[in-house]
Design goal:
Elements (H helix, E strand, L loop, with lengths): L18 E2 L16 E6 L5 E7 L7 E6 L10 H9 L2 E6 L23 H17 L5 E6 L1 H10 L8 E5 L11 H12 L31 H13 L10 H15 L10 E6 L7 H9 L4 E6 L11 H18 L6
Parallel strand pairs: 4-5, 4-6, 6-7, 7-8, 8-9
Antiparallel strand pairs: 1-2, 2-3, 3-5
């Protein structure tokens, strides 16, 4: 890992520590919810992650572990974090390896790269170990969006049971490509993922991040304020930005999607609330429907008109989302009285 890849000292300074705070604690940009603590965490394969932790407002009902989507970062979810805290939950959030302020994995930090989605499981391992170290592991609620949802489903299907329930939005159980294109693209990605070509972006040309995307015809949200807030975060803090996915990332995504489709029936046994976006143009709702049909512990709600990011959608969409989340959490972790 080249020294340029991170704005902090080399990992060797804390080789015997899993969490690092002042004086080298990571920054949280913009205006984070009050009371948060940001730390560096080191994974088992020696990758440094940025993570942040907030205590609940009032008495704690449990802990939410927030797993974001591809190219995202902690700051984008400040409003979501604040809402879960107001509901009585401690919150842990982090940047996946390869994005945000966590270690970038190749020399061009704007290329979205990973060699295997197995790496994301090591990131989750690291966060859960830190929650256990802090004594926050009781009644753990996993919350994941898109790529984060994909990673959490793998976690939910593993033999060890380390969460109480899960909430997923638009989980990446399939990618939306034209039917006839998908097999060719899958084969091409598997071929190009090997060697130096795996670090090439799928879309050639100028690298663009969220700071460059136009609101018109975007596939993420129909809420202009939320879209512009995301763009401004990257524009004002370019270090957070990430460009398009590489062939290696796409090949890894296809492999993980295939593995998830091969899971046995009822592989997910923890109570799970899954939201799909009715107007999603990035992930396959047909793949989500097939997954839900084979997992009885999963409650599925499709939100009509929502684009890919329900948490960042219009007030009307968010009202549906949070009403269902609150109802689900009241069943899973009832509010203590007295």
């Amino acid at each position: 890992m080249a020294a340029w890849a991170r704005p902090w000292p080399s990992r060797g300074r804390w080789a015997d520590r899993s969490a690092v705070t002042a004086p080298t604690a990571p920054e949280l940009y913009d205006t984070p919810p009050q009371g948060g603590e940001a730390v560096w965490l080191r994974t088992a394969d020696d990758i440094t992650l940025r993570a942040a932790f907030w205590r609940a407002e009032g008495s704690g009902r449990g802990t939410v572990l927030l797993a974001t989507g591809r190219s995202e970062f902690i700051e984008k979810y400040y409003r979501v974090i604040a809402r879960f805290r107001a509901l009585g939950f401690d919150v842990a959030a982090f940047d996946w390896r390869g994005q945000g302020l966590s270690d970038r994995l190749i020399e061009d930090r704007l290329h979205g790269y990973v060699d295997s989605f197995d790496s994301y499981q090591r990131d989750i391992d690291t966060l859960i170990a830190e929650l256990d170290r802090r004594g926050w592991g009781d009644k753990l609620i996993l919350v994941g969006h898109s790529m984060g949802g994909c990673a959490l489903i793998r976690r939910l299907a593993q033999p060890q049971r380390d969460c109480h329930a899960a909430i997923l939005t638009a989980p990446m159980l399939g990618l939306r490509f034209p039917t006839l294109v998908t097999p060719a693209l899958r084969a091409l990605s598997w071929g190009l993922a090997r060697g130096a070509t795996g670090k090439w972006r799928i879309s050639p040309g100028e690298v663009k991040t969220a700071a460059d995307w136009p609101f018109e015809n975007n596939v993420l949200t129909s809420d202009r304020e939320e879209f512009e807030r995301y763009a401004a975060l990257v524009r004002n803090n370019p270090i957070l930005g990430l460009g398009g996915a590489t062939w290696s990332w796409l090949a890894a995504a296809f492999r993980d999607i295939r593995a998830l489709r091969g899971l046995p029936d009822d592989a997910v046994s923890e109570p799970t609330l899954l939201f799909s976006a009715g107007a999603d143009q990035l992930v396959s709702n047909e793949a989500i429907d097939a997954f839900v049909a084979r997992n009885r512990a999963v409650t599925h709600i499709r939100i009509p008109g929502s684009r890919h990011e329900p948490f960042m959608e219009t007030e009307a969409v968010r009202a549906i989302l949070w009403e269902e989340i609150e109802r689900f959490l009241d069943r899973m972790v009832p509010v203590s009285i007295g």
